[in-house]
Specification:
The structure is a homodimer of 513-residue chains. In chain A, 38% of the residues lie in helices and 17% in strands. Chain A has 513 residues and is α/β, with parallel strands linked by helices. In chain A, strand 17, helix 20 and strand 18 form a beta-alpha-beta unit. In chain A, helix 1 crosses helix 2, helix 1 runs parallel beside helix 6 and helix 3 crosses helix 14. The interface between A and B is large, with 101 and 101 residues.
């Protein structure tokens, strides 16, 4: 058994069952080891940002790490933007980054670079495997590190000769600590805050945003009158009819300030104190009002669900949460507007859907229209680096093959990782991509106004405009093996979207407006 | 004048006349400043790797830096792979990377990351501008750093509040040292080596690979019998009829070892001792034979042209170099083979063409077929990170609007930065892209054999295969506004290529074989 084989056996034995790969020469022994090992599904991606984003989506839905296979420093670099997003989403992941053979390092070959420094920017755990004897244990440690709450990016650098040399057998993954439980003091303090009756918000983030955590928060809300709200961007939020469905902090600076201005008390459960996504001249960076008090019930790595249930019990909040009643907007007709987009998605969203939301400007109103739709998951971009959506939809579809994945994409965003479509086609994934083709970086036009740059001239407009030429998304999708349709009315969208939801397999809808 | 304006004025005053941009919210004041400043051409790219690769191509042909505009750490990260290539090519470049306002740093906002650490991996000069008062001088220093021989990647990090705050005027670029001239000892030593008459090679790299440096090397070759050869990968090589046209070290390990095995003396002129691109079990990392002696006539930052001319004079090498006679292969017919590809390119290559070569496997034989074609430049990937070709062709076309740019692309490679096609269309660049659609990572199939992994199984084959589904390059190009044709015979290729060369503007040919 060579080093690569001992590594792959360790990964499979440690529960890593999917690898999103973009290999090169230095990873050929790893590829060859995958060939000879049962239990690992290999998914080829034609760009590394697709691989890392897919591993993020997989981790969010499977709650277990996938591996990536990346080629040297530049291959890792191409994956960094989506690793940044995954890191902010606390998605566990094990990156395997091939490196030159240790004997080759002294030559400073063309592809040599400082892989460790690049990896550290986005990884909680980084190690270069130093020998074939160590590589299995290194892989086991990488898995254990990834599984540490709330979820960590591990990056293991694999020199080619460590992969091809003779090694021992696989290693076992060390025990991983569970999430820490809240202390009595934090629960008592939160209960005291809630009993004061001041305007109070329970601000939720991370793993509590599932059915059980939300229902505990809903019991507290019902008993105390506190409001429950999610962070601005959430890795995975369970919502819809029959769930305790919450809103989130809006993105636009003026809206978020207005939304939070009246609260005096913030109880943080897996969330951080709310701050602005960007800074603006003459606007505050904190979204909470001066003088508001922050109380931490659970850190992101803590067991926030247990803490919420304990707090509810402490408060005697015995009435169950008020669950969202089923409701759907009527299917809209006529022009495409933000409201008719919301109504269309709300009218048609299927049960169990996984919505990967990178709709940027166009999707701001979607939450209100979909809150009573059949139960579904909503995934957002925690890190803000665009190009996350289509790759994440790949990983979500592989983790949950029986659920429909709906990728809502701004046209500007979708271009960054457009190679995703090919992998969706190859793997026959059940993903419907909706491209909101407003043919501009529309969000930036809005941001210019927020920044006091209200009247951009022709050169600035050109930098924010995706016309000349218009992108033809249906043609690009066809070029990567995915059928699609272009629509320019909401009626046509509803027909195309309904058809795509009833069918299986990848499909793309370009909505021009 | 705000900080962004003082920065843009400094760039323009310092000779930076093109900016390849992919902006975000934190760069809006910079975009707005570009709007109000004459003298800077702004080229929008839909992915950051396109922007950095374009700046590389521009620098290679214009011999002056372009700027890039990138959005925060993840935007820089998306550009790192092509910055790695540009760094290895010693292309001068000034990256402007927006950052959160300094007042916002303490909040660890979603897009915050360690930009400096990521930048250092691929930059020779990195600075975060600390104040509006300093930003103009920072920009001037960045330009000066970029211009230091042989050419440096400068990265200036621009916090949003440094851009929007009130600043003074622009700053002047400090004086830049010229290339160091060779010392008499090095010239005398090289002359002595050449006079010995042992098998000797002049190994050239960097800026000497232009007409004048090559002709000096050619004088030496004619006078001494030494051979002249280029490094394996060269940023820009002038060649063709009427030039002293040289070969380069081949990429495949067995060929490169065979090519160099008989030389006893290596005189390095802007080149490094030749080493293997990758390590292989049981093969040497050094490409030169044991016992061969290395002599440095000029380091990459030195004035190698002056050194070669001095050495030629020292040797009394008064006969001019033997220049390449005009010759073209006959236009081929029939099947597509590596030889017929070479013949077709050689038969049709127009005078003044800039060939951006990322043909990987398919283009290995092109040098022999094109050596007598009308004079042209040949650009290669110094850093080896694939996805360099289409972006570099953008920059080359902008630097040299009167020359035809021919991007020779493997299909696997072209996918990494496929967004390049849109910028080619928007800017109406005179670029003909030829996609060698062998529908696999063919090079890796060959490398598996070199690595002793000769019989890949189905899972490994799947990781190297671009079928299921086939990529339709003509459809993808059309989706980004570029016309194209698919050919599957060499006759059809010659017709399509000839037509594209006679026309102006971007065109794509997919060659299926």
């Amino acid at each position: 058994m060579n080093g690569a084989e001992s590594l792959v056996h360790t990964l499979v034995g440690g529960g890593v069952r999917v690898s999103f790969t973009n290999p090169g020469t230095s990873e050929m022994h790893f590829v060859s080891a995958l060939d000879r090992t049962e239990g690992m599904r290999c998914v080829l991606c034609l760009f590394e940002g697709v691989a890392t984003g897919a591993a993020d989506g997989y981790a969010r839905m499977a709650e277990t790490p996938a591996a990536t296979l990346l080629h040297l420093g530049p291959g890792l670099a191409n994956g960094i933007a989506n690793l940044h997003n995954a890191n902010r989403a606390a998605s566990p992941m094990v990156n395997i980054v091939g490196d030159h053979a240790t004997s080759h390092r002294k030559y400073d070959a063309p592809l040599a670079s400082d892989i460790e420094s690049a990896a550290r920017v986005v990884s909680g755990w980084v190690r270069t495997s130093q020998s074939t004897g160590a590589v299995a244990q290194d892989a086991a440690d990488a898995i254990a590190a990834a599984l540490a709450p709330p979820g960590v990016i591990s990056t293991l650098i694999l020199p080619a000769d460590v992969a091809w040399g003779e090694a021992g057998g696989p290693a076992k993954v060390p025990a991983v600590p569970a999430r820490a439980q809240a202390g009595k003091d934090a629960v008592t303090a939160a209960a005291a805050v809630l009993r004061k009756g001041e305007p109070t918000v329970l601000l939720l983030g991370g793993h509590v945003l599932r059915k059980r955590g939300l229902e505990a928060a809903g019991r507290i809300a019902r008993s105390t009158g506190a409001h429950v709200i999610g962070e601005m961007l959430n890795a995975r939020l369970e919502r819809g009819a029959g769930r305790f469905t919450i809103d989130r902090i809006p993105y636009p600076i003026d809206q978020s300030l207005a939304r939070l201005k009246d609260y005096r008390q913030f109880i943080l459960v897996g969330a951080k104190p709310p701050i602005a996504f960007f800074a603006y001249p003459d606007k505050p960076g904190r979204l909470y009002p001066p003088g508001a008090e922050m109380h931490v019930l659970a850190q992101p790595a803590d067991d926030g669900v247990h803490a919420l249930e304990w707090l509810a019990d402490e408060l005697g909040a015995n009435e169950p949460a008020v669950l969202e009643p089923p409701s759907r907007p009527a299917a809209p007709t006529g022009a495409i507007t933000f409201d008719s987009i919301g109504a269309a998605i709300g009218a048609l969203l299927p049960e169990g859907a996984i919505v990967v939301d990178e709709s940027v400007t166009s999707g701001r109103g979607l939450f209100a229209f979909t809150k009573g739709a059949p139960p579904h998951d909503w995934l957002q971009n925690r890190g803000g680096s665009i190009g996350y959506g289509m790759p994440v939809s790949i990983g979500a579809a592989i983790a949950c093959p029986d659920r429909k994945v709906i990728a809502l994409e701004g046209d500007g965003s979708a271009m960054y990782t457009i190679q995703s479509l090919w992998t969706q086609a190859r793997e026959e994934l059940d993903v419907v991509s909706v491209i909101f083709a407003n043919r501009s970086y529309r969000i930036l036009r809005n941001e210019m106004t927020n920044l006091g740059l209200g009247n951009p001239g022709p050169k600035a407009i050109d930098m924010l405009d995706l016309r000349r030429p218009d992108l033809d998304w249906v043609a690009m999708a066809a070029g990567m093996g995915i059928p699609g349709a272009r629509v320019d009315t909401i009626d046509a969208f509803c027909r195309a979207f309904g058809r795509a939801l009833r069918a299986r397999g990848p499909y793309l809808i370009e909505m021009v407006f």
